[in-house]
Amino acid sequence: MLDLRLPDHEGTSLVETPLMHETAQKTLLAVRAGGLAVWVGHSRIGKTSTAQWLQRRLEKEHELEPADVNRFRALYFQVGEVRSNSGNQQRQGLRSLYTQVTKVPLPQSMYKSYSVEALAEVIVRVIVRKRIRLVLVDEAGCLSQDAMRGMVLTSDVAKALGWNLSVGFIGMDDLPIKVDQLPQISGRVHAWCYFAEYGLEDTAKLLSHLHSHFRGSSAALCEEVEFIHKTIGGFPGKIVPFLNHVDMRAMELEQGIDLAVLHVAHECIKRDKGRSIEDAKRGYRVSVGKPEGVRPVRQAISAGRK
Amino acid sequence: MHDLVTRAVAKYNRGVRSSDVYLQALEEGIDDLDDLGITRALLSLAATGHLKVIGVARGNEGRNLYLPLDVDPQWHRPQQPLTLGDWVVRAFWELWNSREAQVRSGHRIKPISTEEISAWVGLHRKFSARGITNALTHLAASDQPPLRAVRKGQGRTRLWAPAGLSDDSLALEAPESDLDRVVLAVRGTSARLGRAVSCAEVKEELIKNHSLRLEGSEPAFKILNRLVRVPSADGVYRLFSAGHLRGRVHYCASEALDARAGIQLEQFEGRWNANLTQQRFHAITQCTLPSVAYGRALLLAGSLDAVTTRIKLLGVMLSQSSIHLRRARRLQDVMTQAGQEVNDWIKSQPSELSSSLPNAASTDGVGWTTRELMQGVARIYHRAGSVQDPHTFTRTVGKTFPRLRSELVEHWNQPRQPGIVPLYDRTSALILAATHWGGYEAALQASLAATELGELRDPRFVAAALRQGETDQLYFAIACAAFLWSAECTRELLRLARENPDMGIREAAAWAYGFAGGGDSFKLLDETLACTSPLGASRRSQAEEGGSWWHM
Fold it and tell me: Which of B84, B158, B271, B327 has its CA 20 to 30 A from that of B25?
């Protein structure tokens, strides 16, 4: 029977890994110094999850003691594309930041008439008021260099007003190259955080936190972990949905999880993906074939005469 | 006589009449010839073939035009009419042919008036108007008249048409004056478009329809204005104003509801079509403050209800055959559905929210007169400072600010004589001024208030948010309270500025309190400012000048 409800919360909570802690620590060091941070890594490695986790943790800390000047908040958002040939990119970057900080669109009159530094100062007013010291900009690879400079300008203006503000650029694409090409930005980066793929041991630890089947130690379990690491890779963002598939297949086959079930789950995903891509390449043309057991009419008639 | 004619021809270089020959004889000193004798002699010569007649001229100075036989008539025909009668006939046919060429086939032609003929003749030769009128009368009464008089109504203006043309072929209803033309243009365009028409549409009709071309120098918009404001001699208004649409007055020739219904429906659709209503509703659901969202929804539901009722009444009053009836019913259905959606949303709100808020949102926004608006924004808007006269302000700067309504109030320079003056929405004016010309703090707060408040002006919903909101929500509530200038909200701002544990909230509330006119506001702001506050830096830089809440 089809279960149309969302799954229980258990099994989908975030698993804190040493990499996340290390990244957070390096970033907080950058915040204290008022520098920038750059987070780079492969897709589905956990950059976004880490950023959102860090934002929640800081928010929680701040709520405990709002009057404590040492507690602060972070702002996380995913930025849209700002192309390098699209008008005044610094303004566009600042407009994006203004909208995320204030939660209202920037009035067109302010966008057109305010200078770039004036816009930055307006944003800093809200940032100081909301006690934000860390701004995490996800998908920063979509930003042009000038747009990034606009956001970094906010950090500089905040510093001039006595408020340490760090901007963390998160992404892949050519983000590190863009940052490195601009000495005005690369010189201010205090924390380069690279999200490496999980090794076998880390994958095993992650799996044991994610699914009760993988808690324990046995040869069969090791084989299963190895299989997952080999086929899916050490990417938390890919491992979690794979485990959901595995659960589904195990339920269909009415048996516990073992290597065979993992194989089946993997093959199903691979097959569906492969067929989708093949069909798309063929333009979804249907090959006209005869169903099994059905002969052409003439053959059937001749066979009948015989 | 033959030689005399030859010499006269040589002199005038055209065919000659008996009067021309007589004049020639007088010039040569021939005394024994009189004009009657000359006429008889010329007729005899023509009859015997010594002279030829090449044409006729009208008038009493000789009918025939004579030429010697050996003279080529092609080079001796008169280039211009010789007599007044000829001029009048020439003018008539020139005008008639021109008019005939411009009118499309199958359409009737407007007769030529005496004034038109006089004007045409006057371009070439000077004749008296009475002479032209007499000439026309004589021509019409002659044996083979080229034209005839057309009688129209009781007016003294006479019109002329070709003799063989009956009245059925003439456009006798053609207007006599520019006022008539404009009225006809309005009627025709209204009938074609099915609604009242704007001045631009009337002008287009006046240009396209040749028979309606204005002859005077008064422009069409002045004529339209006059026809609407001033009744005709019999006390009847010939045109009516059907309302404004897209900033333009629309006119109709009838006071009947059908004529105005099209404009009224377009006015409704312009403000209340399905897309706009959906956008308004969507904006409400995106509000950060639940109480303000609730207030805006109540306001929208009330407005939709009122509009639906008006459209329903309009539909009831329209005749069954009206072309606007279906449109009115369709719009009514759209508004009813939208109203239902908004009411369902209101009912779905938590009971603890709805129980703590009023059941209806007040629509009584505070309005500023022009003078108050001038005083309110003059200190920050450079153009306003240079304008002293409220009337000039309304015409030049006042258009920037949204109006609330117009009221019958004491006239600003004639206290005993009431006049209609515009009232500007105070909150919208403050937000607009702060966004465009205010300092960073004012512009920032204005952007929050503009997005959150929408059209809501009832401070009770904002005061509820100031009492109950979470930290992030309080920033929006403070911004809204700053521009509502209400006593209840100002009290809450003071409480927040003094008691809220969050420094950012206290600072924002202190500024809003001062901007809204709270007492001892600068002292309060100085007490709440943090050392790292940009607002503090701005305040310190203005401290010596006395400071302005607008410029921080």
Answer: B84
